[in-house]
């Protein structure tokens, strides 16, 4: 029986479902789904389950509190790219915890995404200003994956024919591991250099990577080495700490081609490793090589400035196996937080924070040296490597006695990093851990005068003057205006009001599953026991996290039919890559290194092909038939042609066309018979959960989108989590991590496949969302959610079939959890395009469905289980009304060049300012149905000129005069 939470999560109640079922002609929801899902793959009812019965919201929160209490309250001073930070309350409350920001979708409809696009322009401007480079993207997944992407940019853009990439020996350990794992699949040789001499010897490389400052804290001038690499034909990638760059010379000024890193310490909680917004910036000429998303400035139909995603021809949906990266998303919510941290503090505030951090490190170094301890480097920013008089473990243990986590570098060296949260008392406690007298720890005066006062220390005392920053940054008014909390709050509210998010209405995007992100699921994310935990904290301090993660591994394995689950991949694209790398590792372990061909249906998501290439595989496309299914004859022919080289087949189930393929068992068996492995893309699991399992379909490995099926918010285009689940024979090749607290996982599996993310458990701080979702839904609730989603999709298809043909259907004319409406006949009959319909839906108060994927000229509609019947009917009525408007154009009521569809969306200004010269009324323009009069969403801009923005590429904050 569905629990109380499930009844709130699922939008259609029994009465509403009865109306929908009567229209479709089914006795109950179970009968509908069991007709749609092939009987051969349906799961049998389980007598036992590892998933407990559904908890109430109060019970789930109490259990999460108990787990959170098992995480130690130690102060992290480990560093290695992760720092404690202070999130301004105005940002925490108005962005991080605000559904207007976290329930928005990727800004593919830019007219209703102007708020988050402006925030991302701020982010890009912040990054380019601080790095001294020309163009930055809208964020990366984390620092280490950004370094890998920088390496790939260098490989593509370099004229060198070398297969070697030179890597700083003082790089972060997780970055080294990630580079080695990813490079191996691509035939890239990683070479290390300590850069003790400059320039280094033997520069037959296509590129080089520098960590600035280094993992050990070292600050040095790499200018000469950078020039030498470039003179030899290589490109240079620098991973730079943005806070340090407020005081240190920028990578661009030193000649770097690419700068990468993380913005985590700009107000984004540690969260046991994520999610955080990585960054990438490039010099002029490399813009089209940038991976990920790029926000640019264009203009709307009235000539006003407007933001949009630029250079979208780079994206995987278009380039597929020729894509420059498999990353199809960003870390938007976290990038917004980081950009707003810069808006909140401004250049003066950031510089003050950085200066204080540097003073703290300098004060600690001076006191340690005074007591005979050796600090590795004279020049540093926030990190010290200290040689200990005895075993370093003793210092680590003493620090833990006082509640601090330091980094064990080796048997005689301890690392300590300070940040904006570090106090004088923290420094004193750390000094005591290194053996300084207790009296100095306590302080001198009767009131405990603070030991180690850092106010008088000289920031960057050992750094050469040639490395000190001289150029300005963050000079745009946006970073120098919002100083009061009132101003900041209103700025954030203004931006949020420009966007359309799930808190306004349905976002019926096919393939993207924009379902409810319930408040109870979100609650634990901001608890300090989860949010202020370092990803490399000792195991004893993270028992709560590890217990929650193990439970999730067990639960996700059960519902997918697999044996092992890795939660490390921090995006669906990274989950895809991890699964394919596991397949590669398996074949190599069996001595079958020649297996490199990956079969991918023509309908597949674009990241599938890009991921296969990055896993070192060759993509061979398999045709689909007229019904949208994999063409079995073509599949057999491709298998026969590549039998000895076949590594894998990647399929999506239900298919990308939104139908359940009946021949899936035959498809997977044919691949297995030829010695290949089957990767089942988990994007559409919301149509399967509780009724069938990927592992039972013949799948060997799958990624799951927690930001789709399992309720993690999309956050305006990120964060996401893409766990990878596999059968036991592939488990040893799932992602590992050099700094993981444990090597073993649920079921006793040990992963040894190499990392795919900076942190061992990826974006761990948002895993409580999925934990809470599963815990409150229970197995029955998860199944009911699937049934409700499939029912809603089929009801929409039924209600609209007489107005828009449904392109693909399966058994009984049924679709899965989404349906594809074919608008090509509408264009042929009326001249109205899919773009016109999408933009006109804005006037009706809707976000458009997915446009032209997987078939050009179509709309893919997915209502999800969270929408109620009234909202579904509102959407259906809007689509029917738009069809009538298109017919009016065709009949000559309105001219083809001037009608409500081609002029959509309509802003308030467009109907108020000046004379109204259109052949339709103002009311028709903005109030096409009476129901929206009181609750109208007003788009801030008119239709945006996409081509103009690419011809005139501007990807930073425009001057304030542009908006006059």
Automatic annotation (TrEMBL):
Coiled-coil ranges (or none): none
EC number assigned by the record: 1.4.4.2
UniProt keyword Lipid metabolism present: no
InterPro entries membership: GcvP, GDC-P_C, GDC-P_N, GDC_P, PyrdxlP-dep_Trfase, PyrdxlP-dep_Trfase_major, PyrdxlP-dep_Trfase_small
N6-(pyridoxal phosphate)lysine: modified positions: 708
Keywords noted in UniProt: Oxidoreductase, Pyridoxal phosphate
A Gene Ontology term for the protein's cellular component: cytosol
Cofactor list: pyridoxal 5'-phosphate
Glycine cleavage system P-protein N-terminal domain segment(s): 7-434, 477-751
GO BP terms, alphabetized: glycine decarboxylation via glycine cleavage system
Transmembrane regions: none
Keyword Transmembrane part of the UniProt annotation: no
GO molecular function, one term: glycine binding
Domain Glycine dehydrogenase C-terminal, chain residue ranges per copy: 785-906
Catalytic activity reported: N(6)-[(R)-lipoyl]-L-lysyl-[glycine-cleavage complex H protein] + glycine + H(+) = N(6)-[(R)-S(8)-aminomethyldihydrolipoyl]-L-lysyl-[glycine-cleavage complex H protein] + CO2
SUPFAM superfamilies: PLP-dependent transferases
Family to which this protein belongs: Belongs to the GcvP family.
PANTHER family from the UniProt entry: GLYCINE DEHYDROGENASE (DECARBOXYLATING), MITOCHONDRIAL, GLYCINE DEHYDROGENASE, DECARBOXYLATING
Function: The glycine cleavage system catalyzes the degradation of glycine. The P protein binds the alpha-amino group of glycine through its pyridoxal phosphate cofactor; CO(2) is released and the remaining methylamine moiety is then transferred to the lipoamide cofactor of the H protein.
NCBIfam families: gcvP, PRK04366.1
Subunit field text: The glycine cleavage system is composed of four proteins: P, T, L and H.
Protein name: Glycine dehydrogenase (decarboxylating)
Gene: gcvP
